[in-house]
Each structure stands twice: as C-alpha cells, then as structure tokens.
Amino acid sequence: MLHLQNYINGALAAPAGGRYLPNVEPATGRVFSHIPDSDAQDVARAVQAAEAALPAWRRLPAEERGRLLVRISELIERDLERLAQAESQDNGKPVSLARVVDIPRAASNFAFFGTAAQHFASETHFQEGVALNYTVRHPLGVVGCISPWNLPLYLFTWKIAPALAAGCCVVAKPSEITPYTAFLLSELCIEAGLPAGVLNIVHGTGPGAGQAIIEHPAIKAISFTGGTKTGEHIARTAAPMFKKLSLELGGKNPNLIFADCDLQEAVQTSLRSSFANQGQICLCGSRLFVERPVYEQFREQFLAGVAQLTVGDPQDAGSRQGALVSEAHLQKVLGYIALAHEEGGRLLAGGQRVQLPGRCAEGYFLQPTVFEGLAPDCRVNREEIFGPVVTLTPFDTEEEVLAWANGTEYGLAATIWTRDLHRAHRVAHELQSGIVWVNTWLHRDLRTPFGGMKSSGVGREGGLEALRFFTEPQSITVKL
Ligand SMILES: NC(=O)C1=CN([C@@H]2O[C@H](COP(=O)(O)OP(=O)(O)OC[C@H]3O[C@@H](n4cnc5c(N)ncnc54)[C@H](O)[C@@H]3O)[C@@H](O)[C@H]2O)C=CC1
Ligand SMILES: O=C(O)/C=C/C=C(\O)C(=O)O
C-alpha cells in the first residue's frame, strides 16, 4: 500500500515519530494509502529548512523564481491525467471534473504567479523639490499555508504559488483527508529543481501538524482556507503572536434570480453552482431566491436538470455527482436534511444516501437534494451545509431578496441573474458579499481580489493582493 511522505529540505522524508494515518477513498470507503501523522518535530525541521533556504531564495531575481514556478506548472500539465485520477480517488469527485477544473487550475496558479511577480512594481511618491518616497516590498520570510479537502491541489497551489513568487519560503499542510496530490506535487517540485527548503510539505492532522504550524514563532504569516470555526481558532492562536493572517472561510451563498433573466441559462448555471463537486465548494450557491413570476417555471426546469445528475462511480465518464469526501461529512449533510424536514421544508428532490453496486457499495454517495418552503431565516438557510443540498424560495421585491441574501453571518459570493444592468449594479453594491457574479458563476480571473466579508474571512487573495499579503512594505523617504 502507498505510504506518502513529507517533503522537507528538498527530499521526501518519513515523519519523525514514525506514525501514519489511514487515507480512505470516498467512493469505496476503503483505505488506499497511509499518510504521515507529523508533529511539532517535523514542522520544526521544515521551518529550519525554510529559514536556511530563505536568504538565497529572496535574493533570486523574480524572473528566476518565476521560471521555476512556470516549470512546475508545465510538469503539472504533463501529468494532468495522473493527477486528475489521484484527486478523484482521494476526494471522491468525478475524474471528469478534476481533469477540467482542479488540475488545470493548479497549473494556472503556478503559471500565473510565476509571471505576476515580474509585474509587481513598487510605488513611488514624488514631492517636487522636497522628497522622493518609495516603497520596497520585502518577502515576509517563512510563511504557513494550510488548505482544505474540497479542491485539494487547486487551493493548495493557490496559496503556495504566490508565497514563493513573492520570495517567501513555505511550510505547507494539505488536508489530512485529501493529501495525495500534494504528495505528487512534492515529487514534481524535486523534478523541477526547486531549491531545497524553499517549499516544505508536512502532512498530518489539524490539531497535530496544523497546530504546530500556526504556533511556530518563526512563521510570519498564515494563509488558511477551511471552516469558519477553524479560522476562528487560528486567529485566536496566531493573532496574539502578530502573525499576518489571510483567512478564506465558509459561505452560504445566495443566487438572486430575477424574472427578466435568461431563464434557461440561469437554470443551467444554477445547477452547476448548486451541485458542482457535490456542493463542496465554498462558492456554491445554496440559497436560490427566484422572483415569483418565474418561480414555478424555474422550479420545473431546475428539477428536470437535477434528475439528470447521475450519481455514480467517480471514475465513470457518465457520473455527474461523485462521493462526498468522508462518512463523517456525509452524516453531517444528512443531519441537515433531517433538520430541513423538522423546519418544515418540502422535499422536491433527493434527500437519501445512494447505495451503488460493485466497488462503490460502501461509498459516501448522496442524491442531489432540493427543498422549498423553508423560512429564509431558518437554520438550514443560515448555516453552511457544504454539500449537495439547496433551497428554493420565491421573492416579490428587490428589498426583500436583499434582506434575505444578506441575512446570514456569511458574505462570500453571490450570483445575480437579470438582463437589467442598472439593477445588476444596484443590487451588487447592496450585497454584503466579497464576490458578486452577474449572469455567470465561478468565472475566475486570477487577477481579481478573492475573499469574503463578515464570517467568510479576513483579507483577500488573488493577483496583486496575494503578493501584497506575502510581502511587508517598507517606506523610504529621500530628501531632495
Ligand atoms: N473552503 C471551505 O470553505 C471549507 C469549508 N469547510 C467547512 O468546514 C467544515 C469542517 O471541515 P473540516 O475538514 O473539519 O475543515 P477544517 O477547517 O478543519 O480543515 C481545513 C484545514 O485546516 C486544518 N486544521 C484543522 N484544525 C487546525 C488547527 N488547529 N490548526 C491548524 N490547522 C488546522 C485541517 O487539517 C485542514 O488542513 C466542513 O463541514 C465545511 O462546512 C471545510 C473545508 C473547506
Ligand atoms: O479560487 C477559486 O477559484 C475558488 C476557491 C474556492 C474555495 O476557496 C473553496 O471552495 O474553499
């Protein structure tokens, strides 16, 4: 059986304590690999290696750093099929999705930041006859990157690539639930010739390796994506140590579907935004508010689309829905389905675990599920479910739908469907949401600031925002 290894100081390494954790394939419920259960000793070794690599890495011209990152991107593209298979096996997502979304985006993350570093200019402020002020952005130093299980390589590289591009050295931990592609990435970094210690990947649990990263005094910043509760814990631990924090947390995203929209497109895209990756994307729209004149039409077409979402073996080309990531997560989502019944919801589709035949008989499959008739402020409409469960609610006025859309503690993403541009801008400006899409969803230009308001996070990643996060500005003023 496959035993994954840490990647420390340029080489693969067993965990210091010799302990391993089982890693389960969600589609089968069977253990298919073991991962290091690393502890503070492994993190200390990784930090030591990163500190040793830092002086040379930060002095390397941005073009040279960029060349290495672009090389990693090319190797990811070369190994696309292998990585897509690995991601699907580890996470339960259809391999067809990993092939077109997860792995291409991981390659783009390295390519984008490999070149972005060369466009990252420093600011100057000239006061004629008085002074020249200029800003130098120094790499922060050694930074920690911690990522979740839903988009494993996609989000892991979204953090690592800008940190490396900015001249930082990294100690990174992927989710213990989906470590496989991060391990394969360490092999590609060795092949690309990334200098030893520049990137270190330590596997293990949140309370084990993760906690050691956030507590380590030499780690200057933490970039984290994951659950809001974990984000709170990280902030409580790291903020008093004056670490810089970028926290990308949960969401409970609304889709606002106005009667004048292109209904067919709204239905098709809402199917994707509801159920892509089994609804396990923080940007998924889980509350669908539909203007009353088109509510019934939307519901009929949407449910017809849901009926086409075949739940099946992630390896099958025909599967549109794979497995949820773990038995524990499946039980959490089933708990919310039970709660939706208790809160008076009418089940329109799904609601049951799926028992597949053959190799997937013990897998964690769930029908895509739709409820209506729930109050906009009930728990199911306020709490993050992070699974294939959405609610439909009719609305009558713009004011009403805005109040409902903004009525949760979250503020990550929202989608507006309308042909009225004035309304689109007006409503977008009123939404308490870090990201607003109009007549589209998951359109991602990597130059745009990415992140949430309220309990959805602190700070922004993406484009120059990420490079700013991983650097420390120093103002220098010269008297003229
Ligand atoms: N992107 C998102 O918005 C995500 C949201 N979630 C939400 O969070 C809920 C819980 O899922 P989990 O897998 O438990 O997410 P999590 O937030 O616990 O895990 C994310 C990452 O944080 C690490 N981590 C956990 N505790 C830590 C600690 N004390 N110090 C440092 N790192 C730590 C984990 O090992 C993992 O790498 C999900 O049911 C879902 O609702 C989960 C994953 C992603
Ligand atoms: O950067 C993106 O395009 C998507 C990010 C998604 C998450 O952060 C998430 O699902 O956690």
From TrEMBL:
Q: Which domain of life is it from?
A: Bacteria
State the InterPro entries in the record: Ald_DH/histidinol_DH (IPR016161), Ald_DH_C (IPR016163), Ald_DH_CS_CYS (IPR016160), Ald_DH_CS_GLU (IPR029510), Ald_DH_N (IPR016162), Aldehyde_DH_dom (IPR015590)
What positions does the domain Aldehyde dehydrogenase occupy?
19-475
Q: Which UniProt keywords apply?
A: NAD, Oxidoreductase
* A Pfam family the protein falls into: Aldedh
Give GO MF terms, alphabetically: aldehyde dehydrogenase [NAD(P)+] activity
Q: Where is the active site?
A: E248
UniProt family annotation: Belongs to the aldehyde dehydrogenase family.
Q: What is this protein called?
A: 2-hydroxymuconic semialdehyde dehydrogenase
Which species is this UniProt entry from? Hymenobacter edaphi
